[in-house]
Amino acid sequence: MKKKNVFIQGAITPDFIANSIAKHQSKTTIGAHDIFLGQVRADEIDGKTVTAIEYTAYEEMANTKFDEIRERAFDKFELTCSHIYHSLGAVKAGELCLFVFVSSPRRKEAMKALEYLVETIKAETPIFGKEIFKDETHQWKVNS
Amino acid sequence: MLVITLKYFGMLVEQTHTHTEKIELAANKISMNDLELQILTKYPKLSTLTYNIALNQKIVAKEALISNGDEIAFLPPFAGG
Q: Which chain B residues have a beta carbon less than 8 Å from that of A143?
């Protein structure tokens, strides 16, 4: 499998997602797509509201890890294709920061693969998030 | 002598004030544990933070041995997605 670059500078746009879906209409062995979209939440922490998350990553390791995770998903599930995109830099509350897209002949395989991919991405990829508050202070996000 | 590259990410950079640095070590072989002690001497406040250490992009145990040219990354908790 060729090495892909998962990272996109800034938010992932709804247009980008729509185009990705359109590109798969020529692949007629696909019977089901499943899509996960991660959106930045305006969390309120100690009375302060998160306005954006600024993402950084150990990019070389993360891209290798994403390849490895995708390969594991292909081994475990019957997939036609899978795509992962993650933001770098600032993503405002309400904007999208993660796009995971799996396609399979059958819906159950797509749905199981998607959950596996999202959970593994959160646990294993070296991506870091700085939650920026309205007053320009910050705290570091940690996945639970 | 060993020449290695160190990388720091996320909240760790607030203590090291650098993302990356090259360092020279007099030894020919050093364990991750010994390297970590040296780094903590240089940046004492890192000891208050949680992190894993990756050797050439793989998370390793403290017993791992470091060779010339290796890249060692200090990784705080992940927050992707």
A: 77-81
